[in-house]
Amino acid sequence: MLLLGNGRVITRDDHNPFLPDGCVAMEGDTIVNVGDTAILKGTYPRATFVDAHGGVIMPGLINAHEHIYSAFARGMSLPGYAPKGFLDILDGLWWTLDRHLLIKDTRASADATMIDCIENGVTTIFDHHASYGEIEGSLFAIADSARQYGVRVNLCYEVSDRDGAEKMREGVRENAAFIRFAQADTTGRVAGLFGLHAQFTLSDHTLGYCRDQAPAGAGFHVHVAEGIEDVYACLKEHGKRPVFRLRDFDILGENTICGHCTHVSEAEIELLAETRTNVAHNPESNMGNAIGCPPTLHMMHQGVLVGLGTDGSTNDMLESLKVAKLLHQHHLHDATVAWTEAPQMLFTNNAVLASKAFGKTLGVLKPGAAADVIALDYTPLTPMDAENYAGHVLFGMSGRSVIHTVIAGELKMRDRVLTEVDKEAVLAHCRDTAAELWGRIVGR
Fold first, then answer.
1. d(CA 195, CA 204)
2. Given the DSSP bridges, would you call strands 2-10 and 56-59 parallel, antiparallel or unpaired?
3. Calpha distance 193→181 (Å, rounded)
4. Which residues of the chain have pLDDT under 70?
5. Residue 296 three-state SS
6. What residues contact residue 78 under an 8 Å CB cut-off, 6+ apart?
7. What pLDDT score does 155 carry?
8. Which of 164, 193, 354, 377 could form a disulfide with 156 if both were Cys (CB 3.0 to 4.6 A apart)?
9. What gap in Å lies between CA 157 and CA 190, rounded to an integer?
């Protein structure tokens, strides 16, 4: 049994939201008790006790839209790369990278990302993968990395027509094989969706083929109207906007995640709400690609469940929380908005998405929930209680504040030290692998 206590506990449980000196008791992969530190230490005297040192204890964080493979783009320089818009960024940077990714690169980038997630208190990832250099087995390589490091992963492969029919079919086969593998998993740490790229790279034939090949019960994870180009292409080539085209191929629904939705219309928002389709908001990526600010708050007010992702920009979900709040305040010229919606995306809606995907209660500290718990080095300089802890999270904490990370009851980081990983050796291997990858890209 494991106890993580001596901290201010933010439970995300409406019936017991905040404990000023609390403790979480875990047995196996499940939380069995949440209460006063002294009482739980007395109740479980033989348990291993991990001290939060008076900091903050909260549920492990969840990323609703990630690109693990993007890790190896950090610091990469491409000769002649001078993008003039979003499509140039996609083709010149991301598609150039993924066309050269081999299984060994995918695995190494996953190892690096898993370490970064643990260090930032991220315990669950919804990843959207592409590696057109080597497709078969790529999702299984990521899953193997996640198994080694303990992070929960929901994986998919990004099907696209951009590299030809055979690569498209390989991506379909990888999705289908991995979904079946995930559906048979009993650990509660692996799940799968059917991945699709933006619709301007997907023909009607391909969308129909994906729908036909998707295993029964599988949802989809698809980029939707991220750039305005996706909307223009759908209207020009298919006579309909992206969300309506997805509806016509029976891709929408409560198990599907639509990434971005930057340029969706009012009618599309109504359709997303009507079909209970989920959306993943990625504020830093949207700003970095200069594609615009989506109507995220309006979607939420219309009943669409919107989670928070990073699109590969960072593994610090608390950083993304801050950016989400600021983006919408700046865009709407209104300092009063997003105070509740931004935390709702990260802490409430991501928990709903993850609990549904993994078949376990995630994102809350209460008996029966998954034992995914983090502690942060944060000592408030003003009073902190059940009424104002959201302000402390927004203005006082970051991913680098995390000192302990527990996933499924297993202590993965203690006092900022990874418990089962030689971090320096892993990162040295990642540097060598990335250097080799970059050499292949530039022809060295």
1. 16
2. parallel
3. 11
4. 444
5. helix
6. 92, 93, 96, 441, 442
7. 98
8. 193
9. 14
- Residue 418 CA: distances (Å) to CA of 115, 117, 196, 407: 8, 11, 34, 12
How far lies 417's CA from each of 57, 402, 425, 429, in Å?
Answer: 17, 11, 14, 19
- Neighbouring residues of 301: CB distance < 8 A, sequence distance ≥ 6: none
Asked whether 183 and 217 are in contact (CB, 8 A), the reply is yes
Structure-token pair, residue 198: 């933006």
Residue for token digits 């990858």?
437
**DSSP state letters, 363-427:** S--STTSB--EEEE----SS---TTTHHHHHHHH--GGGEEEEEETTEEEEETTEESS--HHHHH
Amino acid (one-letter) located at 418: L
User: Which pLDDT value is given to residue 333?
Assistant: 98
β-bridge mates for residue 31, sequence order: 26
In this structure, which amino acid lies at residue 66?
Answer: E
Dihedral sign of CA atoms 19, 25, 29, 32 in order: negative
Res 66: pLDDT: 98
Handedness of CA 292, 297, 298, 300 (dihedral sign): positive
**Per-residue pLDDT at 443:** 86
Three-class DSSP category at 87: helix
What letter represents residue 6's amino acid? N
User: From the CA atom positions of the chain, what is the Rg in Å?
Assistant: 21
Place of tokens 């593998």: 181
| 299 contacts 271 by C-beta, under 8 angstroms | no
φ and ψ at 140, to 5 degrees?
-70, -30
Tokens of 292: 């615009």
Pairing of strands 122-127, 61-66: parallel
Residue 156 and residue 162: Cα distance in Å, rounded?
17
Q: H helices within 44-90, ranges in order?
A: 86-89
pTM of the entire predicted model: 0.98
Say if residue 398 is exposed, middle or buried (CB neighbours under 10 Å; 0-12, 13-18, 19+): middle
How many whole angstroms separate alpha carbon 292 and alpha carbon 290?
6
In the block, which residue shows the tokens 């904490």? 397
- Tallying the residues shown for the chain, one arrives at 444
User: Greatest CA separation found in the chain?
Assistant: 68
Domains detected in the chain? 2-60+363-408 (2.30.40.10), 61-353 (3.20.20.140)
Determine which helix (DSSP H) or strand (DSSP E) holds 355, and give its type and residue range. Answer: helix 350-358
Neighbouring CB atoms inside 10 A of 61's CB total 29
Question: How far is it, in rounded angstroms, from Cα 365 to Cα 55?
Answer: 16
